[in-house]
Amino acid sequence: MKRYETSYFFREGIRGIFLHGFMSFAAIGVIVACLLIMGSFSLLAYNLNELIGDIQNSSEIYVFVDESLSDAEARSVGTRINQLDNVDISTFVSRDEALSQFGERLDGAYSALIEGLESDNPLRHRYVVRLIDAAQMAETAAQLQTVPGVDQVNARVDITENILLVRGVVNTVSLALIVVLLAVSVFIISNTVKLATFDRREEIAIMRVVGATKRFIRWPFVIEGFLLGLTGAVAAFFLQWSLYSSLSRRVTEGLKNIAFVQMAPFDEILPGVLLVFLLVGFLVGMGGSLLTIRRFMKV
Amino acid sequence: MVRLVDVCKTYDNGTRALKGVSLRIDDGEFVFLVGPSGSGKSTIIKLLTGEIRPSEGRVHVNGYSIGTLRARDVPFLRRTLGVIFQDFRLVEKKSVYENVAFAMRVVGASPREIRMRVPYVLDLVGLSHKARRRPYELSGGEQQRVAIARALINNPKVIIADEPTGNLDPARSLEIMTLLERINALGTTVLAVTHEKELVNRFAKRVVAIDGGRIISDRTGGYYQYEAVRN
Ligand SMILES: Nc1ncnc2c1ncn2[C@@H]1O[C@H](COP(=O)(O)OP(=O)(O)O)[C@@H](O)[C@H]1O
Ligand SMILES: [Mg+2]
Fold first, then answer.
1. Within an 8 Å CB–CB cutoff, is residue A212 touching chain B?
2. Whose CA is closest to B11, among B52, B65, B71?
3. CA A267, A272, A275, A281 torsion: positive or negative?
4. How much is the pTM?
5. Which residues of chain B fall below pLDDT 70?
6. Which chain A residues are within 8 Å of B89, Cβ to Cβ?
7. Which chain B residues are closer than 8 Å to A209 by Cβ?
8. Most confidently modeled of A1-5, A202-206, B115-119?
9. Where do the structural domains in chain A lie, given as residue ranges?
10. What are residue B84's DSSP bridge partners?
């Protein structure tokens, strides 16, 4: 494509945007809104998934070994534990190791608490069991209970299940929203471009009479859609950024007395968000205009 | 060169607009195509511009065969033609200059070529002084001259005018036809459709008369042959 043709297509595309200022504004607004809703839900889902990851790590099951077993017998219980389907890995922690780990967590001033306990350790041998699928924690905990030599099983089934449930809902809602909003955006862009082509149908008819190729007629409209999508994407990106940052601050601040919760920093997800927004804006813009022009060109 | 051989055209609704038309127009000719309303004049024009295809027979225009023309070649056929309509078909939002220039841009001419060529053609149709005006600021005759300038801009082999004077008063009509005659004298083939007897009789040109989808007369001379044949 010749340079002056490209510049002509862009000029015409921009002219189209300003010719239908209101529709263009509406189209960009809709794209921004759609991207923001999509983005917010996706980021929510992302953070939940991160959180789940943490919880999955901490959602270990503690299996306490019967005190009447000898050390050697206690160590052999692990073989049976590992045979269970949902067990990823189980680590034997002897009573002595458990005590010293406990001591490490109570660093500094409190370390005095465990002094003297070495000789009379109240802790039991245990296995820390990591699961393959956290969703089946309850079943696995029940199975562990039946393993010979197991005295007690500690699993925080309720918390894990709740978080998994929330994640499932958020993921489903995000996906549904993304599909619906994408369709809405394409529809709006396609209508804006339809208006633009309708407004210039005489001009297009004349262009065809004087020998314009379809490609030549199509480009300005494609660029119009592309620019609408791009503008929407960039605007949505910056809005998403500030929205996310302020939300992130508030979450950390609001929950500081309950737990230390930190959302993923925006810097970390910035390239991904920008890329996805640009891509969606680009696809929606081009898709919307091509959809319209294809129908229109059949005349 | 334009050639129609035994051309029939039946529209989708069953209307038989052309019933075996054969016609040959050589390079450099000036031809009037005359006939009453509904006789098939515009159908011939639409065949020549590739807007419609013949149902039977062959249509050749400047080396393109319309019956077998691929859709993507239609624009290139049209670049060899300059088409003028009764209703001018100018872009209202563009200036006179732009209306002419954009026909060049459409075929990929560079800005430099456009700057060189447009003033020349506007001068040819006598509208240099109104280059910055919008179409609605011009008279009908002036608007048609803009359309002629646009038709000429890409140096077509053939100018095709479908009732170019249909919306104009007799004085303006004569001006337009005289302009077309001048363009013809510069070497461009001209095919002008009209049903204005007075106008045709002022020029000693070839007159092809059509009625009911058939050519009923084809003679040269400054005379509206068509009525003579009918009586
Ligand atoms: N697109 C069309 N569909 C159906 N019939 C048409 C169409 N265009 C023209 N006709 C018919 O074909 C005949 C010739 O029309 P046309 O070529 O426009 O005549 P003219 O230009 O000589 O007035 C007329 O009967 C007209 O009604
Ligand atoms: Mg007609």
1. yes
2. B52
3. negative
4. 0.73
5. 222-231
6. 202, 205-206, 209
7. 49, 78, 83, 89
8. B115-119
9. 3-55+161-296, 60-155
10. B161
Three-state secondary structure string covering chain A: CCHHHHHHHHHHHHHHHHHCHHHHHHHHHHHHHHHHHHHHHHHHHHHHHHHHHHHHHHCCEEEEECCCCCHHHHHHHHHHHHCCCCEEEEEEECHHHHHHHHHHHCCHHHHHHHCCCHHHCCCCCEEEEEECCHHHHHHHHHHHHCCCCEEEEECCHHHHHHHHHHHHHHHHHHHHHHHHHHHHHHHHHHHHHHHHHHHCHHHHHHHHHCCCCHHHHHHHHHHHHHHHHHHHHHHHHHHHHHHHHHHHHHHHHHCCCCCCCCCCCHHHHHHHHHHHHHHHHHHHHHHHHHHHHHHHHCC
The pLDDT > 90 percentage for chain A reads 6
Q: What is the pLDDT of residues A58-106, one digit of tens each?
A: 667 888 888 888 888 888 888 888 888 888 888 888 888 888 777 776 6
Percent over 70 (pLDDT), chain A: 89
Using DSSP bridges, classify how beta strands B56-61 and B30-34 pair: parallel, antiparallel or unpaired.
Answer: unpaired
Domain boundaries, chain B: 1-80+157-231, 90-155
* ipTM for this model: 0.87
CATH code of B1-80+157-231, in short, is 3.40.50.300
Q: What pLDDT, on the 0 to 100 scale, is given for residue A260?
A: 66
> Tokens 């016609």 sit at which residue?
B23
- CATH code: domain A60-155 is 3.30.70.3040
For testing contact with chain A, the best of B83, B100, B105, B118 (most A CBs within 10 A): B105
